[in-house]
Amino acid sequence: MTVYLNGQFMPIEEASIPVLDRGFIFGDGVYEVIPVYSHVAFRLAEHLKRLQFSLDGIRLTNPHSDREWTKLITDLIKRNTAEDQYLYLHITRGVAKRDHAFPNPAVQPTVFMMSNPLLTPPAALLASGVGAISAPDNRWLRCDIKAISLLPNVLLRQMSIDAGCVETILIRDHSFLTEGAASNIFIVKNGVLLAPPKDNLMLPGVTYDVLLEIAAANSIPFEVRKIAKEEIFNADELLLTSSTKEVLAVTTLDNKPVGNGKPGVMFAKLHKHYQDFKRDVMRKT
Ligand code: PDD
Prior knowledge:
The chain is built from 8 helices and 15 strands. It starts with a strand and ends in a 5-residue tail after the last helix. The strands form 2 sheets. Strands 7, 8, 9, 10, 11, 12, 13, 14 and 15 form a 9-stranded mixed β-sheet that branches. The protein has a 6-stranded antiparallel β-sheet with strand order 2-1-6-5-3-4. It is globular. It has 2 domains: 2-117, 2-Layer Sandwich (D-amino Acid Aminotransferase, Chain A, domain 1); 123-284, D-amino Acid Aminotransferase, subunit A, domain 2 (D-amino Acid Aminotransferase, Chain A, domain 2). A hairpin with a 2-residue loop joins strand 3 (29-37) and strand 4. It is of the alpha+beta class. The structure holds N-(5'-phosphopyridoxyl)-D-alanine. N-(5'-phosphopyridoxyl)-D-alanine (PDD) binds next to helix 6 and strand 13.
C-alpha cells in the first residue's frame, strides 16, 4: 500500500511520525474519509469543504489549497490499484514539545493520507439489515468537527460490537436523536423519511446529503427536523449512512425488531436509487 506523508509517497511500512506529534499526544487534528469509485474521488469538493470547516473549527491553517489537495489525492488514487477505494486524510497540528497551548510560532502540520480498497456491505448484510443499540450521546458539543480525537465514538461503537450489533444510535439529553457512533441515522414513519437537522451535535455527512438529494429527485417524501427519542423506538424503519457503508437498514434496536424486523420498502427504494446513482453518476464523473 502506498501512502502519503508530509510531501512524499512511500510504502506504508516506511511511514513514521515522531512521538511528539500532537495528533499522537493530544488527538489534536482532523480527518476526512472519501470514497473513490472507478478511480474518481466522490464529491471531492464537498469533502474538501468539510475539511476546511474542521480545520477552521480547530484553528489550524489548511496546509494545502484545494488545487493542491486535488493533485495529491489524484496521485494517491493512481498509486493504489483498487478500482473502488476509500481514502483517509489526516492532518495534525504537528510536532512540538508537549504543551496544551498551540506551538508558538506555529510548526509544520503533519499530513498523512492512505487508501484502502472500498468494501461496501455484502449482499447478505443488505438482505438481513444490521442490529444497533441505543446509548446516551456523551460526546462534546462540537461533533460537527471531524476530529481525530475519537475516543467517545470508539467506546460507543464498541458497546454495540460487545452486544453483537453493528452500530450505536446516540440520544442527546435523554431526548433526541443525533447520529450513530460512526454514521448518520434516519428514521422512517408512515412513508416519510426523517433526518435530524445538521447542527453542532452531529457530523454533516456527505452521504446524508446524497440520501436527501436522492429522496428529492425521486419524489420520496422527507422532512429534516429534530427527532424525539420516542420516535426512534416507534419508527417503521431505521437507516444508517456513511461513505463506507453507503445506506444500510437497521433491523433491530436494543434487541427488539424495528418495524417488522426486516429491511423495509424505504430502504429498498433508497438503496436501489443509491446504486443507480453510483453507476450512472458517480462512476461517470
Ligand atoms: N465516519 N457521523 C459520524 C460520527 C461519522 O464518523 C461518519 C463517517 C458519518 C457519516 O459521514 P459521511 O457520510 O461523510 O461518511 C457520520 C467515517 C466513515 C469514518 O470515520 O470512518
